[in-house]
Amino acid sequence: MELELGLALPGGDLIAELGLASEKSTSMCRKRGFDDMFCRATSPPLFVQKDGDDDDGDDDDSRFNHLQELNLGSRVLVGWPPVRVSRRKSEEGGKRRVNCVKVNMEGVAIGRKVDLSLHDSYQALFLTLSQMFPKKQHDGEESDAAYYKVTYEDEDGDWMLVGDVPWEAFIL
Amino acid sequence: MVGGFRWAAMFPDEVWEHVFSFLPADADRNAAALVCRAWYRLERRSRWRVFVGNCYAVEPAAAVRRFPEVRAAAIKGKPHFADFNLVPSDWGGGAEAWVEAMAEGWPHLEELRLKRMVVSDDCLELIARCFKNFKVLSLVSCEGFSTAGLAAIAANCRYLRELDLHENEVEDNCLHWMSHFPESCTSLVTLNIACLEGEVNVSVLERLIGRCPNLKTLRLNHSVPLERLVGLLHRAPQLVDLGTGKYAAQHHPELFSRLESAIAGCKNLKGLSGFWEAGPTFLPAIYSVCEGLTSLNLSYATIQGPELIKLISRCKNLQRLWVMDLIEDEGLIAVAASCKLLQELRVFPSDPYGAAQPISLTEHGLVAISAGCPMLHSVLYFCRQMTNAALLTVAKNCPNFTCFRLCIMEPHTPDYITRQPLDAGFSAIVESCKHLRRLSLSGLLTDLVFKSIGASANRLEMLSVAFAGDGDAGLHYILSGCKNLRKLEIRDCPFGDKPLLDNAAKLETMRSLWMSSCSVTLGACRQLARKMPLLNVEVINERKRGLPLELQPDNCPVEKLYIYRTVAGPRSDTPSCVWILR
Questions:
Q1: Computed from CA positions of residues B155, B157, B162, B166, in that sequence, does the dihedral angle turn out positive or negative?
Q2: What is the pLDDT of residues A39-52, one digit of tens each?
Q3: Partners of residue B351 in chain A, C-beta under 8 Å
Q4: Cα B10 to Cα B266: distance, rounded to the nearest angstrom
Q5: What family is this (chain A) (predicted)?
Q6: What is the ipTM of this complex?
Q7: Is A128 in Cβ contact with B304 (below 8 Å)?
Q8: Are B138 and B162 in contact (CB under 8 A)?
Q9: Under an 8 A CB cutoff, do A80 and B167 touch?
Q10: With an 8 Å Cβ cutoff, are A86 and B350 in contact?
């Protein structure tokens, strides 16, 4: 199933609204964000799906296939793009290997993607998550951010509480 | 001169020298020197600063002879495309010839700035030994030296004020080079070691900066841990420009608060850079100085958009911002709202080779900045998509651009909405921005854009072209227009012999022309070299193809071509892959 980006509020049948990916909605989608928004029919509690970090192929619809082609289809060109050798070296040295995980929140139709390699601690991750999924107000009372638990699915398919293992072990 | 009256003798020489001291610009001094022999003689004895844009344009001895009182020299070597590995590593640009001539003729030299040159340790030792009053050494994008050479500078230059090492390739063979600064060295104003890859003895550094009360600029390398930054800042609270070392550590509330207070203690801080491996944890430690910052370089920090926004929104007085494309459109919109004094923006690609997830940095970010920042005049922008409409808007919003460099990372990318070439967009830029001095093109472009550039870009001095144009007409438009063009660099364009030969005279009015992977033949280069004795026509063919170049036929294609004007004739230090045609 091709997953579509929607600009509507969470909930509702976004796929039906958008219909097949038209050119117009595709370019609108491209404006909105990168491959971090998609719909799910069911919304389990806030969880981090670790096995999803490498299969970008599943999530990317035709819009991002286009972008990926631009990046991967080109032959190797010397000195292009014109980025200085020193800058490239430092990027490699910084060991910035992208480590993306999908995050869904209970009651929110649209999930997000988080790059763990850009965070250095659980605190930083929770900060990002709290910004991505802002507190909703139910009947005037403020929900406590601490009310939500963050869980992840490990290799064995078990749901674990995020924060149990040291950060360095978690991101591996 | 009127009749035979030698009006220059109206005043004693000292008066004229005093008059000339009010002419700092080289162009004005050059003009004065042409008025009469007396002025030529007087001007040359009073010029104390020289800039040599191409180290091979003049013999070092000739330059030293003409201007005997020089105190400050700046010299550039390799062509700009050397930054991107397009120039063979042994091409040239060695500094020895210059340093030897200067040691001989300018013993009072105080400042030396070299860019894209090969500087050996022997050169550094010569500098350290021969110039008794040496104060400023600036090496930008150089290579060929090691920390042993730096040790010689540290040990012998008693009045050293600036050691500015920017993006050099430095071999690390002398771990304790900084210990060679004697206790008597207290004069440092600038110390920039950001490009060094090796370990730095932070205790030695602490003692050094502790005894240099005038230190204004300190840029550390990534080996200096965050914990030690605190101690360094305590010893140099007067800093105006700070480059941090590694900006990451185990999260520790105590370290955070010590760092925060150390940074807050630097009341004069205007510039920040470094931030290697920075994550969100320690970024808030700099919040207290954000309001005073005029320059912020986060281009080595892989921080995500939201954190960048929180930081940059506090920098209301920012004039220069260098950042990674992780800032995305949303971040640039926030910059446009907060940084109303922004003059220069550079957005670098976090992932130039496109393996990671796509970043949402598009034409919208650029348009937002152009609309929100009225003082913007210099842009470097790496992105993956663009439209003519966006460029038209940018051109309308920013008629004051002096430098516009747009790099759409995939070659031949058209306007992604209309699928048209980006001719209209770039034409709008050159037609609107009457003060444009530097332009880099990208995306799908036909000869039409060159027609506009040739006709409208009257102040353009440097043009970079890649994967553009349809044929010879494109290059002809540029060479027959662009009155003030000094440097032209072209790669992978279908430009051939005819526009070069038709515009040979133009090449003598420029500093240099680089063409690689174009359609130029050896025959045209031979013709050009014969016709223009004041040009060095360098043909660079790295692939050895049987016959040596002298015996190749005229229709042999030229891989890389570098043409520059010179009064020094052909250079004698060419490697085997470079032929200078006469």
A1: negative
A2: 333 333 444 444 33
A3: 91, 98
A4: 55
A5: Belongs to the Aux/IAA family.
A6: 0.87
A7: yes
A8: yes
A9: no
A10: no
